[in-house]
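## retry 2 of 3
previous attempt timed out at serialization; input unchanged, resubmitting
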Amino acid sequence: MDWYYKRTKPRIQEYCGRNGDHPSAWDSEFLVCSQAGDTRFSFRENQALDAILDSGADVYRSLWSRQGSLFFLDLEYKNTRDREDVYRNRIDIFRSGLEPVYGRLFGILQSFCIDFMTLMTATGYHFVFKVPFQSWVHERLAGLGSPCPQLLKQYARVHPVSHRQRPVPLECGLAFDGLGRLAEYLAKELHTDSDIPVATGVLHPRQILLDLSTYADPLHIRFIRCAGSYHQKSQQRFATMIRHFTRGPDLPLEDLLVLIAEPSEAADYIRSTPAAIPEAGSGLDRLLTAYQASGLGRRHQEFDAHHVEDEEIGQARKLLLTFSDQELAQDSGLKRAVLQGSCEGIHPRAVGLMAAERLRLATWDSPIMAWATECVDGYNPYSRALFWARLYGT
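## retry succeeded, writing output
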């Protein structure tokens, strides 16, 4: 284990919800790791943490929590034409592009008096908080959720060679869906003066992405980079640092931009900063109330309640004949389909359902969806297509 990981290991354990000495008691359901420059991920048990750190890999924890439900919102810079842009020009990108969006989202969460933490990565920020099962507001959060039947069936079954050892409890699946709706509400409340376009999907060659795709997939395949982990997606090695913890002060941006590129320098700062994911507190109830009273909350209810008629199914199938499977597998393609369907009077739920049917039967010759077959018990075409149909149709 190198010097950096020796220093940051306690914070990584804390972020994974260490509760006692034995990893089986931690909050994280499992760990995930990836080697430098490798796009493949390996699911591991909590007990494998030392082996992961010894290998120098990036380390992630499951979004699936044993003690509550985790909110996660990923804010990052994307340049689909030049993936190294963010590493070469990160100081300007963080200052003029990411900082206005970060500040606005930070302010919205603080206005609801929610306790949260933020992590700074090489490409952006993670906003994270926990809603404990024993919290009175967790039941209300779960009440927002309305996962599709196909996803609920997947949660209830455990594939013989799946990385998970148990079904996803219904309460967890419902709350995860509810958190996705809150993330969408926060994203749509965001108005900034960033120099770079801001979007909730990969819609521009160069943009600030409020990545909601976490909530399009099953809870049990999603994971988040740990505080204190390396970030090794480029040729340079970066740290993953805590910028804000609950209501404490932020470390100045200029200091963070220097430290994050020098993990050996950042290690002592990371070691000195609390990394246990904070509980949201009573402020979450205010956010739930605001969402339910909003136009978006009402449109979500209408989307969930809409019964797709046979006529709509035929219209949606005909519409989607003009789209390839690869286009429908991407949020940008589904957005075009939903918007075109709306112009023709086709409900977005019908478009989402028929897109899911296409994706369920598709064979993947393209690397666009190669990840879907890499994780057994992972990709669910219905949850993914209906999520994007709801996002772009409401």
